[in-house]
């Protein structure tokens, strides 16, 4: 909107407070003063003062992270050599690691024929050999964990609690400000340079038009803008739109992680520090995890990847079937839900790396392509990229050099290229290509890449989402007749319901028997375990680029995949309805839509912009 806006000057403005920004601000604040606490660099915005550093975070608290994580913590240990896990709630050292292959105990999983033969062989061997093979409760625990997956020298913790601890250290230094509940609308770009950011307008209606109490978003101008707002953040994506992606780079591989924090039942034998990863069930493409934190608390959940082509790929119901697997349920039965959440993960890794720097800006963290898809690690890599940028910024600031593309390339990108983050990213770059061709090909490809340091991998062709997702009729052709699919679709549309429950029921998946503690409805998870809300006065952050396309869409993956049931069937037809009071800001709709954007085939018909609120849970 063409309105008069207030302007504030800063030296460095940062967007998004996660592990990458934690590493950046921790390192930067330590380097801005000498041993006596005197500034070593003067502010250009406020001469005579230390540099003015401000970080804006969309969520209502810096601890509202949505992830229980396991990490080797190399970069974190380097920043905190004397780090004591006991100083951070819900944090402990990794003491035991297990990887389990889950068989299908109910016979409805869509397993390739070769995998079904493998399952039969495992069961037959178990009957014949008894306890001589590691088979129990429809699962096989692997006797060996590949080194590239091992986290035995690391930590498992609540990212929300870790962010709070780091944030308090940063704020306590007095050298940086962190402002939660402050969504940033986008970057300020002038003459090919980023010169700051614009905060989101307040006092607007759902379409963003001025309403009662309208207050234009503040323009914050700075010599350097640090972008760490993640893979679905509006600032990073706007910069990609403005400057494009490097040749050959794209972001087509994603996953949604849906997670719970639970109180384990009395008598559960899993010890604190146990890290358990699973694969093979409820569908072969879905991976699971369970991390045991202090005081019999566990973080657990599943990852549903973009190359799982089911057009009704609901994470929530699949997570409940995963928990009900005999191998897991014997440890979880009687447990209690504490909190719940979901988050999109950018799994293109180095292949999805954008321009890391430009005139006036630098990218760090997951949105910069730092996640390692082979090791299943992202927090430590993100933290380390933040540290590397801070070291480069301090170098430039002390030398009085401007934050140009060339200077940031030399000070930051060169550090990153020479680090373990880059070396391991190269190994992982093509490790998951095989999953675009099939589950078994993907597993073999990961093994080949891991054991050969990336020299050998299973080749695959990366496809855009609208090139991958089949029609419902095609996906269920061997299970549900077309006429039945039509009847189910009509009935769900009439009642305003999504399709996944009806189709999964018809395909043979048993109903979930709710226990009111751990197995609860999706709606109850939103009320009991997520505390989802949005502040008034902001526009809707999920919109459909071409509503006419939505009117003819038959898959409507955005509805089926929505983590918070915020996108629902419109009983009057046309584009789906969006309720931001239920949106957890996972961003799954952005990459699950099966229709291309009208102006860019690399995007979908869903647009995800700056917005308020989201999930309120410090435990995740």
TrEMBL record:
<keyword id="KW-0830">Ubiquinone</keyword>
<dbReference type="GO" id="GO:0004174">
    <property type="term" value="F:electron-transferring-flavoprotein dehydrogenase activity"/>
</dbReference>
<keyword id="KW-0408">Iron</keyword>
<feature type="domain" description="4Fe-4S ferredoxin-type">
    <location>
        <begin position="541"/>
        <end position="572"/>
    </location>
</feature>
<keyword id="KW-0285">Flavoprotein</keyword>
<keyword id="KW-0249">Electron transport</keyword>
<keyword id="KW-0813">Transport</keyword>
<dbReference type="InterPro" id="IPR036188">
    <property type="entry name" value="FAD/NAD-bd_sf"/>
</dbReference>
<protein>
    <recommendedName>
        <fullName>Electron transfer flavoprotein-ubiquinone oxidoreductase</fullName>
        <ecNumber>1.5.5.1</ecNumber>
    </recommendedName>
</protein>
<keyword id="KW-0479">Metal-binding</keyword>
<comment type="function">
    <text>Accepts electrons from ETF and reduces ubiquinone.</text>
</comment>
<keyword id="KW-0411">Iron-sulfur</keyword>
<dbReference type="InterPro" id="IPR049398">
    <property type="entry name" value="ETF-QO/FixC_UQ-bd"/>
</dbReference>
<dbReference type="Pfam" id="PF21162">
    <property type="entry name" value="ETFQO_UQ-bd"/>
</dbReference>
<dbReference type="InterPro" id="IPR040156">
    <property type="entry name" value="ETF-QO"/>
</dbReference>
<dbReference type="InterPro" id="IPR017896">
    <property type="entry name" value="4Fe4S_Fe-S-bd"/>
</dbReference>
<keyword id="KW-0274">FAD</keyword>
<dbReference type="GO" id="GO:0051539">
    <property type="term" value="F:4 iron, 4 sulfur cluster binding"/>
</dbReference>
<dbReference type="GO" id="GO:0046872">
    <property type="term" value="F:metal ion binding"/>
</dbReference>
<keyword id="KW-0560">Oxidoreductase</keyword>
<feature type="domain" description="4Fe-4S ferredoxin-type">
    <location>
        <begin position="574"/>
        <end position="603"/>
    </location>
</feature>
């Amino acid at each position: 909107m063409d309105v008069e806006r207030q302007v504030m000057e800063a030296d460095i403005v940062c967007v998004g407070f996660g592990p990458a920004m934690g590493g950046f601000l921790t390192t930067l604040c330590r380097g801005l003063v000498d041993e006596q606490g005197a500034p070593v660099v003067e502010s250009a915005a406020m001469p005579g003062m230390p540099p003015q550093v401000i970080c804006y975070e969309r969520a209502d608290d810096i601890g509202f992270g949505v992830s229980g994580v396991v990490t080797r913590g190399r970069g974190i240990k380097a920043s905190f050599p004397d780090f004591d896990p006991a100083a951070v709630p819900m944090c402990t050292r990794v003491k035991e690691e297990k990887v389990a292959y889950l068989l299908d105990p109910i016979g409805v999983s869509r397993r390739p024929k070769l995998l079904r033969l493998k399952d039969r062989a495992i069961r037959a061997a178990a009957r014949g050999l008894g306890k001589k093979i590691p088979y129990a409760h429809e699962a096989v625990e692997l006797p060996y964990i590949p080194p590239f997956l091992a986290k035995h020298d690391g930590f498992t913790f609540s990212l929300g609690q870790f962010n709070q601890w780091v944030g308090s250290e940063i704020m306590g230094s007095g050298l940086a400000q962190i402002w939660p509940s402050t969504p940033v609308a986008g970057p300020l770009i002038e003459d090919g340079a980023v010169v700051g950011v614009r905060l989101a307008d307040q006092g607007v209606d759902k379409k963003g038009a001025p309403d009662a109490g309208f207050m234009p978003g503040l323009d914050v101008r700075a010599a350097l803008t640090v972008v760490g707002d993640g893979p679905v953040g509006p600032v990073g994506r706007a910069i990609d739109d403005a400057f494009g992606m490097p040749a050959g780079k794209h972001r087509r591989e994603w996953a949604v992680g849906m997670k719970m924090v639970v109180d384990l039942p009395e008598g559960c034998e899993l010890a604190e520090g146990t890290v358990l990863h699973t694969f093979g069930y409820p569908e072969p493409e879905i991976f699971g995890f369970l991390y045991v934190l202090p005081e019999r608390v566990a973080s657990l959940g599943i990852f549903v990847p973009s190359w799982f082509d089911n057009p009704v790929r609901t994470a929530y119901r699949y997570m409940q079937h995963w928990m009900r697997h005999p191998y897991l349920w014997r440890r979880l039965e009687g447990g209690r839900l504490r909190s719940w959440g979901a988050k999109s993960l950018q799994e293109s890794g180095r292949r999805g790396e954008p321009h890391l720097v430009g005139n006036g800006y630098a990218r760090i963290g997951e949105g910069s392509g730092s996640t390692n898809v082979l090791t299943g690690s992202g927090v430590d890599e993100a933290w380390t990229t933040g540290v590397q940028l801070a070291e480069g910024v301090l170098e430039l600031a002390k030398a009085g050099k401007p934050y140009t593309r060339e200077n940031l390339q030399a000070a930051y990108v060169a550090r990153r290229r020479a680090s373990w983050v880059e070396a391991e990213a190269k190994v992982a770059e093509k490790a998951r290509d095989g999953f675009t061709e099939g589950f078994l090909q993907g597993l073999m490809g990961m093994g080949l890449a891991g054991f050969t340091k990336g020299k050998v991998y299973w080749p695959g062709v990366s496809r855009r989402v609208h090139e991958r997702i089949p029609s419902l009729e095609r996906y269920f052709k061997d299970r549900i007749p077309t006429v039945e699919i039509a009847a189910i679709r009509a009935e769900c549309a009439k009642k305003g319901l999504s399709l996944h429950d009806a189709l999964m029921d018809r395909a043979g998946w048993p109903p979930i028997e709710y226990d009111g503690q751990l197995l609860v409805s999706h709606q109850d998870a939103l009320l009991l375990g997520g505390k989802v809300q949005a502040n008034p006065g902001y526009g809707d952050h999920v919109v459909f680029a071409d509503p006419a396309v939505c009117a003819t869409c038959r898959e409507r993956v955005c509805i089926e995949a929505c983590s918070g049931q915020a996108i629902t069937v419109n009983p009057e037809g046309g584009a789906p309805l969006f309720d931001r009071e239920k949106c957890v800001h996972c961003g799954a709709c952005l990459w699950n839509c099966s229709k291309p954007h009208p102006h860019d085939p690399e995007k979908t018909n869903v647009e995800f912009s700056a917005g308020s609120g989201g999930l309120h849970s410090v435990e995740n």
